[in-house]
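Exam revision sheet. Question 4 asks you to relate a sequence to its structure. Input first:
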Amino acid sequence: MKHFTLILFLCPLLTTLAQPRTDAFLTKLLATNPSAVFKEVMRHPETYRLQIIYTQIDRDKANKPSFKHYYFRVDSTEYFNPASTVKLPLALLSLEKLNRLSIPGVTKYTAMQFDSAYSKQTKEWIDTTSESGYPSIAHCIKKAFLVSENDPYSRMYEFVGQSEINRSLHAKGYLDTRITHRFVRMTADENRHTNPIRFIRSDGRLIYTQPAAFNTDPFDFRREARLGKGYYVRDSLVHEPFNFTERNKFPLEAFQQILQSVLFPESVTPNQRFNLTNDDYRLVYQYLSQYPGETNYPKYDAKQYYDSYVKFFFMDSLHHQMPTDVRVFNKVGWAYGFLTDASYVVDFKNKVEYMLTATIYVNSDGILNDDKYEYDTVGNPFLYQLGQTIYQYERSRKRLYKPDLSKFQITYEKRINDNRPTIKNVDN
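Answer key, structure tokens:
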């Protein structure tokens, strides 16, 4: 406990030394985009709290990758709301915890039942969107990745536990990251309490019970994060900045590094890796890149949840199809006027691969919780133009050795035409 408290104390001291990083190369490359919306954002990056990381990947003759990161205004001390991006580390930590428990019969596919033992906790004993009819960690990950559903995140939060989430991320070197809450309205105290959980056999027999838990570890909230000039609480406007100080925090570079660590575990130090099996990696890769319309369980409506639905760098407002031979392994988040995406892009035909991570804030009136954010007119068009700028540059960039990308060629599902209704309007 003493060592953990020291880490929490040092965390703000380490990050306050950071300065915004901007590379001339990336700035020059971005200046080539002629889009009016893109140019407007680039003229006022502070207003849009814009941060970008572009990662070039080059292979040697043995196909070993090396990574070169370019930054634009990257600063871990400039807060952005991570929204659903935190579903990525929660999925990885859930798999890691299962492997650490190593209980016979308890896997990511094992049926789970969530009970309640404290204020605002809810039960979940069945899941009609899964093939088994029950929740499981694998099914939570599918729903969290495919269309970014919120409930699976909260269930993984309850399985891992608030204390273990933060201790594990800090131990892997992500000191300025904090996960403090579910995606339901709860107090700080209620979020410290997590549900009792059962793992059961297909016939209902009990395999393992995880008791309710309470996190006693402190958080360091000395660095305040307040945004905007007002916010709504139901129908009432509060005329003061919205306080994010105790909300989730997931700096952009940590987000990029975690995605890189799971796609290229050999590229990071052993202590930064998540303890995953080969089958865990296979599942994560599949659902980071599979389309909702390819998936049978859950059976999402393919028109509403189109191929590029959670692929911000390829989400053209006119066409929702992804380019042929391109797959994007990514996680996005959007809330409070923030749009964020960390992506690994693979073009199998042209032998192109790179990473792109960015966040933008689009809230011109400065009022939060009013649902008047410029997602459609500024945020999404900007991220699409950013994605196309980097993608087209990568297609023309010369490489000494063409990459062997077979590791990322996944066998995806094919939608079965059955009589089940499609799923629309999920909470995400």
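Marking note for examiners. The first strand starts at residue 51 and ends at 59.
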